[in-house]
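Try this one yourself first.
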């Protein structure tokens, strides 16, 4: 009888850690999946995919000016082919890398607040105006750089 108890105890000691590890891994996977789900929720709330499409449209407008011979229907079709979700899926691992699940939850709470919803609503305007200001700033810096290079060239440096 003692022999059977010893065998059963030995089997339990071998099998229990295997089940415990499996359950632990399942728990970790569930937590990871919950975090990734919340990151995707944050991306939807903030409209990051739509913001990416807006940036694409601005970029296409620049291309249209550089290539006026290309019909607008080509550009419209190109934009229509772009899937905002593909951008979201590229961003999710970055958020996962730098933010904890609790931080993601806190950020979601902010974006679900009246101030957060307002920010999401006006962010496309802020982005457009910021890009325009950035372009002008870049032109100004570029002009100053050219002027400085010309001055240096005249001095023989």
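Now uncover the answer:
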């Amino acid at each position: 009888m003692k022999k059977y108890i010893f065998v059963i105890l030995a089997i339990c000691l071998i099998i229990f850690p295997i089940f415990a590890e499996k359950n632990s891994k399942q728990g970790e996977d569930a937590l990871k999946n919950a975090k990734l789900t919340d990151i995707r929720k944050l991306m939807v709330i903030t409209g990051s995919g739509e913001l990416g499409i807006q940036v694409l449209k601005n970029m296409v407008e620049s291309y249209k000016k550089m290539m006026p011979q290309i019909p607008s229907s080509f550009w419209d079709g190109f934009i229509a082919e772009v899937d905002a979700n593909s951008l979201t899926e590229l961003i999710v691992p970055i958020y996962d890398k730098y933010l904890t699940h609790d931080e993601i939850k806190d950020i979601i709470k902010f974006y679900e607040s009246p101030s957060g919803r307002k920010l999401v609503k006006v962010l496309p305007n802020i982005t457009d105006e910021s890009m325009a200001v950035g372009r002008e700033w870049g032109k100004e810096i570029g002009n100053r750089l050219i002027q400085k290079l010309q001055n240096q060239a005249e001095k023989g440096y």
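Discussion: The chain has a mean pLDDT of 84. The two ends are 98 Å apart (CA to CA).
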